[in-house]
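dumping these here so i dont lose them again. two proteins, back to back, each one seq then structure tokens. dont judge the mess
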Amino acid sequence: MTKISISIMVSFFTIFSPLVYAAFNDIGVGARPLGLGGAFVATADDGNATRYNAGGLGYIDDIQLSLTYARHFSGLINYNYAGVVLPFGGAGSFGASFGILSEDSKIYKEQTITLSYSRKLLNQISAGMNFKLLGTSFDKNNEWIQENPYFTKTSTSAFTIDMGLLAKPITGLNFGLAAENLVPADVNISEDIQDDDKNVPRNIRAGLAYNLSAIAQSAQQEALRDVLAHTQIMSEVSLRNGESEIHLGVESWVHKTISIRGGYSNKSGVHSSSNIAIGASIKVPVSKSALQFDYAFQIIMGELKSNVAHRVSTNVVF
């Protein structure tokens, strides 16, 4: 790769990091949550729960495995994720996940290793915690990296924690709250960064999810009642590094085997952006397990206009 193209790549990460997950920014995982516009903190009911709200693990009764592959900006950025949830009844639920982000030139890489634990405090409330190890690395053998005085080191790692809460106060209504990166985590590779900017930003999420089955019986038409009985709407607000985001989503299952969903998100602040997402899932029974394939298509608008992202994931329930 030429010096010019490397410079463009580094500038891309620096200037547009809120959109591409550089410095552990939040592009999310799982085709299902992202098909909902990222509004998943109050749902968190599958193998992606460790990423969105550790409190959701306490309500998961079956072993779940989730795998995600994501491509951004015509393959410039790739992200792979694997997460598993292991419920142990009254002892609570444990989880683990691994995510790795890389870019096309193979110069920059991020990885996140997470161990999770969650337990119901009451039938209506579950609390959880993530223990995360964050790591970044640049190719130390790259000539341009070696010559650039910005890089005082080419790899770094740091530990932090997340906390999450999922409450179900009334039938059909969920409330989710998650606080991420509560322990300061410095993963910078340069001494030129100001002290205030050294740590991965904290991220606060709060949201509601409502299952329309609670009002389905009031519908006059049988077809409408069936649709409402398997439809959920979600909303979420998040705050990260002085920038706020709004996430909205809706999901409907047809005969419990096929679902369609849509979502919208909007970020306001220095790096404003918005995206529209659509997605679908299909469940395939395999012996005593259920194999679910998820797909999401996102149109990203804002500083990087007319860009799209494809998400493909698999969730297995044992």
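---- next one ----
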Amino acid sequence: MTNKLIIASVVTKNCLKEFLLTKYSCELFNKCNWYVSCDSQSAKELQKFENVKILQFDLEDGASDHNSTDKESRDRFLKIILNKFTALETALQENDYCLFLDSDMLFVNQISHNLADFFKTGIDYIVSPHYSRDPINEDKHGFYNVGMFALQNVDHMKQWRYLTENCENFNLYYEQKPFELILSNFNTLNLPINYNIGWWRFNNPRTQNRINQLALVDDKIMFGNLPAVNFHFHTFKAPGGFNPGQFLVDKVMGLLDDSKCEKHQQILEYYGFLSETTF
């Protein structure tokens, strides 16, 4: 843990609690510097952290939903997404690489401290497949998840950003399907399945039994024979009034509760604190 992770993220008032849990749990296991694109309300809370560089943006009034039938709602969501590139560009101007994390993560273990070294071998992107075993769904939404990836060259994002800005014109799913398309131009390294463990990896008949692979072994959460690093799910909000990943939240929180690991108990305590906090 001698090297600091350089991390970019996007935060709005609706996901502020989730980001604080992401940041807290990640920093229990890793040393980090953050570049965060955020709205004014989130900026007021995040400015107290010395290791966070704030890049503030204006947030339009109204709901933003990536699956909405309302075009204005989808457009607002896209404008929020585009701040991802701002955070990454700023981070890469000051560092040799950057890891991007969505705001709804929960870490239970350390990220490889050699992450930056992989880029010295000619790797352009470190990426996270969905591992969903659902080819029809991935054909629409993209093979890779854009909630966790790393890159080293700001110029490599130009085509990706262009396709994202014009995703509706090209009938592409926001930044995620364009991400899959542009990666054909680069050398990529896949993160193994114990990273970025999203709820979508457990939600079809071919993958539902995977939930049984999550278990506590010697107070470490294991996913099969690998130690789980981080989970990807909403802990404090239900988009559209329903949280499809709640089953995974319940499973992981139960494992943390059963664990005697001090850091796991600290996560639960902070989770409880955030649950009772109003911003």
